[in-house]
Every structure is written in C-alpha cells, then in structure tokens.
Amino acid sequence: MTFTQATRIQELLESLEPELIEIRRDIHAHPEVARTERRTTALVAERLRQEGLEPRLLKGSGLTCDIGPSLEESGVELLALRADIDALPLQETTGLPFASESEGKCHACGHDVHTTVVLGTGIVLARLAREGKLKRGVRLIFQPAEEVQPGGALDLLAQDVLDDVSQIYAVHCEPKIDAGTIGTRIGPITSACDTVTVTVTSAGGHTSRPHLTGDVVYAIGRMIAEVPSVLGRRLDPRAGVNFTWGHVQAGSAPNAMPSSGIIAGTLRCLDVNAWERAGQVLHDTIEHIAAAYGVDVTMHHQRGVPPVVNDEDCTLNFEAAARDALGPSAVVLTEQSLGGEDFAWYLTKVPGALARLGTRTPGGETYDLHRGDLVVDERAISAGVAMLARVASGE
Asked: Which run of H or E residues covers position 223?
C-alpha cells in the first residue's frame, strides 16, 4: 500500500472512531436474534445511504452494498466483506451503561463489533471511492442468522450475494488476544458442526424381566460410550473429529424399563472429507448397537456447517494488511476452534479467510464468547476497520 493511501485511511478512521463506538453501543443496546434483525438492518442501511451508497435490502433482514468501480465499468475484481448481525437468546450480565435493553437477548458473541467494523470499513471505502482512490469493487454483506442452523449464509447465497465475487473476508471477535492484535491461520480455523438426535424405542417392561423386552436405557448407555470411541478409530485422528453427547432422557421410575428414550449431541470435525464420511460411520454404529439389544432407533442427523478453511493467499493478505495497519507484531497464530461458523458456506463458493479480531484489554480480564458477561475493548473496532480497509483497497 502506498504511503498516501495508508495515511488517508488512517485520517478517515480517526475522524470516524467516536461515531463508530456510538454505533456499536446502539447496536449492542438493541440486540435482535436470528432473522429478526430489522432495526439493525435499517440502521446500517441508513448510514450507508448517508455516504451516497445504495444498499440492497435482502428478504427478511440483512443487506448488501457495492462500493467502488463496477465490473461492467472496469473489469476489476470484486471483493466481499461479511459481517454477521444477529444476537444470542441470552441474558446480559455486564452492567454496562449501554447494556442490552431487551430481556433475554444480548450480543455475547461480538456481532455488534463485526457489524460496526464492516460498516466503518464501508464508510472509509466510500470516501476513498469518491476521491478516486478505490481501484477495485467491494461488496459489503451484512448477514442475519449466523447463530442458528441452518444459518443465514445459505439464505444469502440463495439470493446471489456472491455473484461476481472473487474473494471474501470476515473477522470474528477473539477475547483471548489483545485489542490491536489479529489472529490468523492458513487452512481449517473452525470446525464443521452437526446436531445428532437419536430416539430409541422398545416395548418397555419391568426391570425384573429385562429379557422380555428391549432395554432402552442400557442401549442408550452403550451408544453414549461407544459412538465417540468408534468415530475415533474409524476416522483419521488428524481430522479433529469430536463427538460429544449433551442431552439424555429416558425413564421415570427405577423399576420400570421405559419404552423410549432420547439422546442428542454434536459432531465436530476440522476436515471436510472426514466430515462427509462421519455421518455414515455414526449411523452404522448406532444401528449395530440397537440390533444387539433388541431396540429400534431413529436418527436425525442435521448437517450444520462445514469447517472454515482459510485460503493461503487470502490469509497472507490479511496478515500483510494487519502488519501495515497495526504494526509488525500485530499478527499471531490463532488456535483452531471446534466451534462452528457459517462463513464456511461462502468459502465453498469462493476463496477467502476469517481472522480473529483481538478484543481483550491488554493486561485485563479474559472473557469467553457466548457468555452474558462478555466485555470487549472497543479499540478493536478501529483495528478491524484499519485492517479491512487495507485488504479491500488492494494496494
């Protein structure tokens, strides 16, 4: 990036920083859960219109907005920046003066920060475009419903939000690293995540006569113990496969063998090929256990999201932009996560990368995502805008 371009981005960002903090606090105070994000959509759209842009509102909620030269005008590439805009159905406990005003809803995953970062980047890029300093097209994507399955990424892909896009980038808050720091990784950075529910049935009976009926409880116990073990032996351990049960329900009396029971859990995997194979291994294992104990099973395997697999070139673009914007030591290697992120669906269509945006106050407390007490250092907003503006400007 030229010195003049970098300097101009920094000048624009410094003038915008107080406003961006206020926007983030407004969004934070008014969280909206999946597919209800109409206020957030309207706020973002109006601010973009103030910059002379023409956002495209999507079905239900969410929007896209193109900035800079179009493909028809110049043949330049079109790059996309994605932000997720939904909140969680969780009670906030921070006590902040701008804490959630909606009972049982809060931005405990940092999507208010993601939204503000991409909005701020859009404002900077719009001003660069008016000055003739933006040489490529950029599409902002404000996506609803990241926190549910099936998620909003699939909704938006069905509305052609990636038409003509050659690369896509996103950031995600990371409260384990300091504000002003970016975490990157080439290859898998988040995991595939599926939900599996198994219903086990038999005639039921008395515990004194277990031989006269299928033993639902015992069969469930074997499934709980054996399914993770079989997956660990049938699939490559380097694929990062993890199966964890989270729900068990069967019976109501100690001397009665129930006629039905339910278990549910999550399947996570860092490798696409192993993820595709794991479902059949899982199904076969459960069927074999059921047959051994004379019970019937119905399995519902809900595919969630594939792993986010960062493209090497796009990750290097992130790193170069972060070092340019934030300093030579601003980039750290981030750990892989077995959490799911539906940004992965975009990466099945075009190359791209997800970076971790540090939100911890240096020397301060480390929080965790999806907890009502999450507090972010708002200096992360400027850091994210500075980096994304450099990535998107392409110089």
From this structure: helix 216-234
The whole-model pTM stands at 0.94
Residues 6+ away with beta carbon under 8 Å from 74: none
96 φ, ψ to 5°?
-65, 150
Tell me the C-alpha distance between 227 and 242, whole Å: 10
pLDDT for 310 beyond 90: yes
Residue 72: pLDDT band with limits 50, 70, 90: low
Place of tokens 């970016």: 182
Beta strand spans in 56-116 (E) = 56-57, 63-67, 78-84
Average pLDDT, the chain: 96
At residue 174, the 3 state secondary structure works out as: strand
Q: What is the chain's Cα-based Rg?
A: 24
Cα angle for residues 307, 311, 315 (degrees, 5° grid):
110
Q: How far apart are CA 384 and CA 119, in angstroms?
A: 11
* Residue 16 near residue 117, CB atoms below 8 Å: no
Q: Is 135 helix (H, G, I), strand (E, B) or coil?
A: coil
At 205-252, the pLDDT tens digits run 999 999 999 999 999 999 999 999 999 999 999 999 999 999 999 999
3 state SS of 188 = strand
Dihedral over alpha carbons 324, 376, 194, 118 (to 10 degrees): -50
- 73 pLDDT higher than 90: no
- 341 touches 172 (CB < 8 A): yes
Read off the pLDDT band of 145 (50, 70, 90).
Answer: very high
Domains, the chain, ordered by start: 3-190+308-393 (3.40.630.10), 192-305 (3.30.70.360)
Q: Give the E-state strand segments of the chain in sequence order.
A: 56-57, 63-67, 78-84, 137-143, 165-178, 182-184, 187-188, 192-201, 205-206, 242-250, 256-257, 260-269, 296-305, 309-310, 331-333, 352-360
Residue with tokens 């005003």: 101
Q: Is the peptide bond before 18 cis (omega within 30 degrees of 0)?
A: no
**pLDDT for res 76:** 76
